[in-house]
Amino acid sequence: MAKPKRKNRERVTAQNIADHAGVSIAAVSSVLNNRHVERRIAAETVERIRHAAAKLGYLPNISARRLRSGTSQKNNIILAFVTSFEAPLSLASHLIMELRQLVGGGGGSTDMTFSLMVEMFPAGQLKDMPGLLTGDHFNAAIITNTTPEDDQFLIRSHLPYPVVLVNRAIPRYSCVVEDPDAGGRAAAALVRGKRRNLAVLHGTPLTQTTQNRVDSFVRAATSELGRPPREIVAGKLSEAAANDAVLRFLGRNDEVDGLYAVTDGMALGAYHAIKEKGLRIPQDIAVVGVGDYDISAFFDPPLSVVGVARSELGKEASRLLMRQLEEPGLPPLKVEIPVESVMRASTGG
Length: 349
Hints:
Layout (H helix, E strand, L loop, with lengths): L13 H8 L3 H8 L10 H14 L18 E10 L4 H16 L7 E10 L18 E5 L3 H9 L6 E4 L7 E5 L3 H11 L5 E5 L5 H18 L4 E4 L5 H13 L6 E4 L2 H13 L9 E4 L14 E4 L2 H17 L7 E4 L2 E3 L7
Helix pairs in contact: 1-2, 1-3, 2-3, 4-10, 6-7, 8-9
């Protein structure tokens, strides 16, 4: 049965929030623009205003900032996909495609129009993004590829518009995350293939998700083999940095016959290093990646992967964002997507 369309609703104004919370418009304006600290507004009042804004479904009206007060217009949602410069854009392609489908389809609501933009920030500097705290540039967002410093900023801050986080779980935000045992599944696959000298390859900085991958791999490998795996740390997140790190590791004649790379880009860098050292995949070293890249099946040899399809992350993130836009005031949701294993020639499977 088709879901009935919701009735058109007028844009929520500062006056609506003030009436609902029993405060002045000036207080509402200060809180919505994150200037309540300098205006010395009581914490209880700030929380009451934020609760009213969320319950009523307030969205910063970007266009109305340039119009006379009281002018009505159709709700225009400026939806931002927010990611770091350091994250490979290829990893974000499926998320952006799902958002484009959301925008192109009108979002399922008759009183909304959508525009999609991509906003990028240096890793660890999300707090410096213009308009992030006030909604001056966009009034809904999907945020991904944040570092621990960025996550701490999100924990401390209040963003006055609907937000969905991808592959990080933070209180007060709706989020979509992969199964935290993804690394454990990779370790099990290597152990089943009779690999006994395992290593994990990752870059810096570690995000919440890549840290989970490393931690769960280390736990599972230690449990299975009675000793922790080796850790190969690249100075950056790139394929070139991964190549350099694996070359240095192999140059020390460290024993390894099973390698887990926390991104497929890093696995590609490892491939080149392994072959440069005259070693074979999988005869000498079996390699498992994560599953983010469409091209993983075309590595030489094809890469075995354990992970979540980006298209699934994109679909769930888009669904959660529309939930917030269409039914304001609902509590945040956390959606955990199970990982899938695809064993290919890089592990002999």
